[in-house]
Design goal:
The protein is mainly alpha-helical. It is built from 11 helices and 8 strands. It is flat and about 105 Å long. It starts with a helix and ends with a helix.
Length: 320
């Protein structure tokens, strides 16, 4: 996207929603201030996170220009706040560690938002296709699978970063008990339960000793499962809302503010596709069409008979 197109996009965004434009501007300024602070304190890793955040802020504009779609201003505002909360507050300001449940809240919102994206994309494809009709339930199911796929891919990314660079993106939990077949001395796959753990000591080859009080350190498994569960919850919530909206052919405040539409369609109005006629309605329409065809045929018979009579008279005259 060129600078000119980006400025045009900002101008259009300001006309559509002044509040979203102000929010976008304030968040960018806060990210830039945070980046300057990180550079002055020598924390260049967090400064790079700030640069990444500024780039991520461009995603709605790039997608809107590339795919020729219109993203509702409210949805854009949610995306901007989510990026700021995840990258700046979560990573730079350490909210993931200092505020319990911060990661859980963001993953729930993530599931909700990507379900909205998936629902919108497949809804647009469904409306544009002349040969394929997807039922509201199938639209909701595909949106749910889309959101869960994004969540799983993200967990793959966190696992890869932890294995290669030891970033601890999959946060650890201290547990007081576990069961494992690896502790079975007979290798008979018997589960050995270790309960009421009060202390764990870890010794390295370099002679370092790390002590974990009140339990055993779980390496990321609980965190990943928790993230996927809340992602699932967020996805289910939006899929139910989207299903009801399409099923009843009535938009609501949530779908109006979150449904992505083609750029030539008003983003505040959800254009509903006409519901597929029921089996009884199709049979009735078929019967009406057949009856109309028979009626037209009956009306055409007298005129045909007259034409035949005239033809016979003309033939007799010629013979005479």
């Amino acid at each position: 996207m060129s600078v000119g197109k980006y400025l045009k996009y900002l101008n259009e965004s300001y006309k559509k929603s002044r509040g979203t434009f102000i929010l976008y501007t304030v968040l960018r300024i806060m990210v830039i201030i945070t980046m300057i602070r990180c550079i002055m304190t020598g924390n260049y890793e967090n400064a790079l996170i700030c640069v990444l955040s500024l780039i991520l802020f461009l995603i709605p504009a790039i997608l809107a220009d590339t795919l020729k779609i219109s993203i509702p201003p409210f949805f854009q505002g949610v995306i901007f706040v989510f990026i700021f909360a995840a990258e700046i507050l979560g990573e730079v300001d350490k909210y993931y560690v200092n505020i319990p449940g911060w990661d859980t809240i963001l993953h729930t919102i993530n599931g909700f938002l990507f379900a909205a994206v998936g629902f919108s994309l497949f809804y647009l494809l469904n409306r544009a296709s002349k040969n394929v009709y997807l039922s509201p339930f199938y639209l909701a199911l595909v949106a749910f699978c889309f959101s869960m796929t994004i969540g799983v891919v993200w967990e793959f990314f966190e696992f890869t970063m932890d294995q290669l660079f030891y970033l601890d993106m999959q946060k650890d939990f201290v547990v007081t008990g576990f069961g494992s077949v690896s502790l079975d001395p007979e290798n008979a796959q018997n589960v050995i339960k270790v309960l009421d753990i009060v202390k764990t000591e870890i010794q390295t080859a370099a002679g370092e000793t790390f002590t974990i009080e009140n339990g055993y350190l779980d390496i990321g498994i609980i965190d990943s499962m928790k993230d996927l569960l809340v992602n699932c919850l967020g996805a289910i919530i939006f899929c139910i809302i989207g299903y009801i909206s399409v099923k009843t052919s009535k938009s609501n405040k949530v779908t109006e503010k979150l449904m992505i539409t083609p750029s030539d369609v008003d983003p505040y109005v959800v254009q509903q596709k006409s519901p597929r006629p029921s089996k009884e309605e199709r049979q009735a329409n078929k019967a009406n069409a057949k009856q109309a065809k028979q009626s037209n045929a009956q009306q055409a018979r007298p005129s045909n008979a007259k034409e035949n009579t005239k033809g016979k008279k003309k033939k007799k005259r010629r013979n005479a």
